[in-house]
Design brief:
single chain; about 180 residues; mainly alpha; two-stranded antiparallel sheet; 6 helices; about 55% helix; about 10% strand
Length: about 180
């Protein structure tokens, strides 16, 4: 939601609905904002291809000026992409004691799934679409947070097993004294 472009009445309605959502929750949530610099290299390449394909000289000139404008905007201002995540924490005291790992996992799902569904439903009332983050995406988010962002994301490819490095446990060295 581009909040700044909304009218005062629309902003007040969203704030009131969001406040109702927070008040309706019987559990705590955390809101995490992850900012990352945008890499527009691929967008500029698309503009270059479109300009080369353009037969109208006036449109080609306009595309050149637009490309210069985008480049100068990026150089003068840091352009960020902000992503918002809602974290639903679960504390050990809420789970109690369990007999096995399988029963613990089932108990966790029993507690978290209704909470997730409630948050998604309540955010829908505000006009926001929410989904649960998949495991692989969650790993990427944590990697970005702790290691910094990679300039250009390369699609993941399967590693050839012949090229994979296999680690062996080192044999203990005997010490002679």
């Amino acid at each position: 939601v581009n909040f700044g472009l909304l009218s005062d009445r629309e902003q007040a309605a969203i704030i009131a609905t969001f406040a109702q959502m927070l008040n309706s929750l019987s559990f705590s949530i955390q809101i995490m904002i992850h900012s990352e610099r945008l890499n527009i290299t691929s967008y500029l390449q698309i503009l270059d291809k479109a300009q080369k394909a353009q037969t109208n000289p006036l449109l080609s000139q306009m595309m050149t000026e637009y490309r210069r404008f985008i480049q100068s905007t990026i150089k003068e201002n840091e352009v960020l992409d902000k992503k918002f995540y809602i974290v639903i924490p679960l504390f050990g005291l809420e789970l109690g004691l369990t007999a096995s790992k399988a029963s613990l996992e089932q108990k966790i799902k029993t507690v978290l799934v209704p909470r997730r569904d409630q948050v998604i439903r309540q955010l829908g009332r505000v006009g926001l679409k929410a989904t649960q983050v998949a495991k692989q995406k969650l790993i990427e988010i944590f990697y970005d947070i702790y290691n910094g962002q990679v300039e250009e994301k390369i699609p993941s490819q399967n590693v050839n097993p012949e090229l994979a490095v296999k680690l062996k446990n080192p044999a203990p060295q005997s010490s002679t004294s």
